[in-house]
UniProtKB/TrEMBL annotation:
It holds the Pfam family SRP54. This is SRP54-type proteins GTP-binding domain-containing protein. It is a peripheral membrane protein. It comes from the Eukaryota.
Length: 333
């Protein structure tokens, strides 16, 4: 959901309307979310087997096996230990007495982990137009597609003017791909000028145009890069600085796209991107049958940054706000 606090009723009303555009889809497409985590669900099916014949005398063995099941499902060691230690404390205190109670407590524990430290999953656009959203991530994660879907959702509110910035000057086909999304969503676009290789000037020019022509939102694409390529990461930092120079206080959001199939590899990626540009939210993409859902809990647990959106398919409508309870229900059979 998009939410903003404002002293200006006009601007607050505008961005408040956008909130309803996203909220309507917050708990839809759950069946596809379930199928996207089918591999993780298979790995976690052992939880029901472990808890079916639960008895206190086997508590330690069961909890060890439960921890192993979480590790196999890409919950990182730190997060898996934290979850199981919390359950162990309640089991030994006789607060959890049945297998069903343990499973319910397990799911509640993961929901709490996804929500307590990370804060709001709302998209924060502020009160001043244009709002600027910078989208970052590694190669092939789905940044450009995410921008297209996000534009489509925002454009559902009649009259929203969106400007896309083709800041991926590294990949040859990136500009053309973003142009297709701009056409599909009836958005304007700023491209690199002939021979222009650096992305920062493209983003700066886009933000300045958005201010001059009173656009509502700028969606800034950036070059995909490995978190271990330090020169490209420095370039990404320059992109953020250029946006801030063109419009004080921008960007409003720095969204990092996470490929749901990469497992715990997403943790060092997210850590490095956050160190360089200050990630404000994650978008989880590529939820096919090989998606590894447990790693998301580890990323949120360690970095305290919320997942804001989940991609559940390739269509324009297939971007929904993240819902922690729906996510956990998708993980556990």
């Amino acid at each position: 959901m998009v939410r903003c606090a404002s002293s200006s009723s006009d601007k607050a009303g505008f961005f408040g309307k956008l909130g309803r555009v996203f909220k309507e889809k917050a708990k839809s497409d759950i069946d596809r979310l379930f199928s996207g985590f089918s591999k993780t669900r298979e790995n976690l099916a052992v939880v029901d087997e472990l808890l079916t014949y639960w008895n206190l005398s086997d508590a330690e063995k069961l909890l060890d096996e439960l921890e192993e099941a979480l590790l196999i499902s890409d919950f990182g060691p730190r997060t898996a230990i934290k979850i199981v230690d919390g359950l162990r404390k309640d089991v030994l205190a006789a607060k959890l007495k049945t297998g069903q109670e343990i499973k319910l407590a397990l799911k509640k524990s993961i929901v709490k982990l996804l929500t307590s430290r990370a804060g709001s999953t709302d998209l924060k656009l502020g009160t001043r137009r244009p709002a600027v959203i910078m989208v970052v991530g590694v190669n092939g994660g789905g940044k450009t597609t995410t921008i297209g879907k996000l534009a489509h959702r925002l454009k559902k509110e009649k009259g929203v003017k969106i400007l896309m910035a083709a800041g991926d000057t590294f990949r040859a086909a990136a500009k053309e791909q973003l142009e297709v999304w701009a056409e599909r969503t009836e958005s304007d676009i700023v491209r690199a000028e002939e021979g222009q290789k650096k992305p920062a000037p493209v983003l700066s020019r886009a933000v300045k145009r958005a201010v001059a022509e009173k656009f509502d939102i700028v969606l800034a694409d950036t070059s995909g890069r490995l978190h271990t390529n330090f020169s490209l990461m420095d370039e990404l930092e320059d992109c953020k600085k250029a946006i801030g120079k063109a419009l004080a206080g921008a960007p409003n959001e720095v969204l990092m796209v996470l490929d749901g199939t990469t497992g715990l590899n997403m943790l060092p990626q997210a850590r490095e991107f956050n160190d360089v540009v200050g990630v404000t939210g994650f978008v989880l993409t590529k939820l096919d049958g090989t998606a590894r859902g447990g790693c998301v809990a580890s990323v949120v647990d360690e970095l305290g940054i919320p997942v804001k959106f989940v991609g559940v398919g390739e269509g324009l409508e297939d971007l929904q706000p993240f819902d922690a309870e729906a996510f956990v229900n998708a993980l556990f059979p």
